[in-house]
Design a protein that fits this description.
This protein is mostly beta strands. It contains ten helices and 42 strands. Strand 34 and strand 35 form a beta hairpin. This is Sialidase domain-containing protein.
């Protein structure tokens, strides 16, 4: 059974009204890109397409680009138990156990929060990268292992980024399974300095050679398509009164016993067999640069809204109509009767915590993932939601006077929260501060280069509204919140996800099915939508299948396709992901519809999950400070760049010395 917190339905909440944030001052989608040769940060790696452009710049042929991307992946991913996150199922995430339904397959979440996973997981993450190069891609079974295969030049080629191994045909082209079955001498044909199974040399190499010997004998080595996807936007938004600090050193909070992470492993996720942090991968016999160390970083969001002015509304998603912000105590109060206000947080970084036992923040107790502090006048009740207000935790706390409440065990493993504050007339708040700690993939940190480092700061003025349905809800609750029930096809039935019912939508006959959802932008104009859906498919696949995504900007009158999963008939994986994104900048709308279409050639099918995001406009950015800190000659040095309001792009140089270690980078919005 899960130890997850219990929740109450949103249908019992009638006090709050939906709210459109007034035009204020928000730093929407700030990114940093340094001139570090390997780890320039999210400004270079915000999407899979960005990563591929960075990795393959200057390379011409298909194989040159594939090898360049292979090397990039080796320095940005590493082998460890695959990350897991909460779902509607009553199972607590625990990376010490196998929970297939909880494993993360979104390459964007992997890139921003993790970077580590087992072979099958990382090769699923790699699919959006290979597809960005224009290649067909699939996973392929291997003895005790899983590979990636990509198609170029009219043939399939095996790229193993987990064990870091490539084999080559005699003509110098990367080999695939069929090549090795036809010519087993390829098994020992590497091409130094291209890595060929260097870890734990020579043990791993010998084990992989033995595996290829089995493959060379023929047999059915399963082919698996559409295993991974990219959907979660790599976008943050900062309000006035908010800072975002990324600490490169995981011991920033006070050493081993104070580390904050989201993984079941003593001291947090780490490994010392990797190409990360060690330059361009190289391997020649027993000589290689794969004996490096890698771990995680932390991201700290600290938000102190100014309750005495309208500035606090930049962080509000809903409020009652009787709220008053004033210059006297209580600064935030109400005219009469009960009052309520909801604050929000969402980012591409997973919320983590300090495990009480220093090893297991997942099924064990953890602290300091979400801490709410403040000064209450009278009694104020705090409640937390992790599903955009669809449900609220039953762990609601009444505070008075100075308070500090830790809600980590409710929000850990999620990417956002809503906090609702309620009180009766004459009560209210004088002060409020939200501190959210996240886990950050070490490879996404925008690192400084020695002897002076140039930094490019950009603001795209975008925010994100997640639409992540809670599949444990009843049909009535779900259709009231996110689904457009009248546009669901009549042959599709809904039942909440459970251990006995993994698919929430299923077709009742052999006809195509469809479901439709609303995607909004918190009252702002939408600029883009992103979505992904996981579907069931027979193995082998039927001759005709149709899994795709459409969007509508006119309430369903017309539809435009924006994502499709092409499934060859040799597919032998029983589920898949269809995903896509659509630019809506030419449509001045605040709400769009997303339709999921699923059909598998005359057989019933269904859906395991649907994830959607609305990317929307944000106001012009206010004044912002960027603070870089690094260690040099035993001392921590800092450099601050102050930017005037309305600054959308700025280049500057951080005066680093010849030998440095990154400490932190901070974005401050006064």
């Amino acid at each position: 059974m899960s130890n997850a917190p219990r929740y109450v339905s949103l249908l019992a909440i009638t006090l709050l009204a939906s709210f459109t944030s007034p035009l204020g001052a928000v730093v929407g989608d700030p990114t940093l890109r340094t001139d570090h040769p390997h780890y320039p940060g999210e400004g270079a790696f915000q999407t899979a397409d960005d990563c591929v452009r960075f990795a393959t710049e200057g390379h011409k042929s298909e194989q040159e680009k594939a090898l360049a991307l292979y090397n990039w992946i080796l320095t940005h991913q590493w082998h460890l138990m695959s990350p897991q996150e909460p779902s509607a199922l009553p199972i607590a995430p625990d990376t010490a156990k196998t929970n297939e339904d909880l494993i993360v397959y979104d390459a964007s979440r992997a890139r921003f929060s993790y970077g580590y996973g087992l072979c099958g997981t990382v090769h699923a993450w790699n699919e959006p990268y290979w597809k960005s190069l224009g290649f067909n891609v699939r996973r392929r079974a291997f003895p005790g292992h899983t590979n990636s295969e990509i198609e170029y030049g009219g043939a399939w080629h095996t790229f193993d980024t987990d064990m870091a191994g490539l084999l080559f045909r005699k003509d110098g082209v990367v080999a695939g399974y069929e090549d090795i079955i036809a010519d087993r001498s390829i098994i020992k044909n590497s091409k130094p300095p291209v890595p060929c199974y260097p870890f734990a040399w020579p043990g791993d190499y010998q084990a992989m050679v033995a595996g290829w010997e089995q493959v060379a004998q023929g047999g059915n080595w399963f082919k698996m398509y559409n295993s991974g996807y990219e959907a979660h936007p790599g976008i943050i938004s900062l309000r006035r009164g908010e800072t975002f600090t990324r600490y490169y050193n995981r011991d920033h909070f006070g050493g081993l016993t104070k580390r904050r992470f989201w993984h079941h492993q003593a001291g947090g996720p780490a490994r010392n067999w990797t190409f990360a942090n060690n330059g361009t991968p190289e391997h020649t016999g027993e000589k290689h640069n794969a004996r490096s160390s890698v771990t995680y970083c932390n991201g700290l969001f600290e938000y102190t809204p100014d309750l005495s002015t309208a500035a606090h509304l930049e962080g509000v998603i809903a409020k009652s109509t009787n709220l008053i912000a004033q210059q006297q105590s209580p600064l935030l109060t109400s005219k009469e009767g009960a009052a309520s206000i909801e604050f929000k947080h969402f980012s591409p970084y997973v919320i983590c915590g300090d495990p009480v036992d220093d090893a297991n923040p997942m099924t064990g107790k953890a602290t300091d993932g979400l801490v709410i502090e403040g000064q209450a006048v009278g009694k104020v009740t705090l409640a937390v939601s992790t599903d955009e207000g669809q449900t609220w935790s039953q762990d609601q706390r009444v505070v008075a006077g100075a308070f500090r409440e830790d809600f980590t065990d409710i929000v850990k493993g999620h990417y956002g929260w809503r906090v609702r504050c309620t009180w009766q007339a004459a009560s209210g708040l004088d002060q409020l501060k939200f501190t959210t700690t996240t886990q950050v993939c070490e490879a996404i940190y925008p690192r400084l280069k020695p002897s002076g480092s140039e930094v490019l700061y950009r603001v795209a003025s975008r925010g994100v509204t997640p639409v992540l349905p809670n599949w444990s809800l009843s049909e009535a609750e779900l259709t009231k919140s996110v689904e457009v029930h009248e546009l669901r096809s009549s042959n599709v039935k809904y039942a909440p996800r459970s251990l006995e019912n993994r698919m929430m939508y299923q077709t009742t006959n052999n006809k195509p099915g469809q479901v439709v959802f609303r995607v909004q932008g918190d009252g702002n104009l939408l600029t883009e939508i992103r979505a992904a859906a996981r579907y069931k498919i027979r193995s082998p696949a039927p001759e005709v299948t149709d899994f795709h995504l459409d969007y509508s900007v006119d309430e369903g009158k017309t539809w435009t396709k924006f994502g499709e999963a092409i499934t060859p008939t040799d597919n032998e994986f029983s589920s898949g992901w269809v995903y896509g994104k659509a630019d809506l900048a030419q449509h001045p709308i605040r709400e769009a519809l997303v339709r999921v279409h699923f059909y598998q050639g005359g057989y019933p099918t269904g859906l395991f999950d649907v994830q959607m995001y609305g990317v929307h406009q944000t106001p012009s950015p206010p004044a912002t400070n960027i603070v870089y800190a690094w260690r040099e000659a035993g001392e921590v040095k800092t450099y601050t760049k102050s930017l005037a309001k309305g600054t959308f792009q700025q280049r500057f140089t951080v005066p680093t010395g010849p030998t440095i270690t990154d400490e932190f980078v901070r974005l401050e919005v006064p």
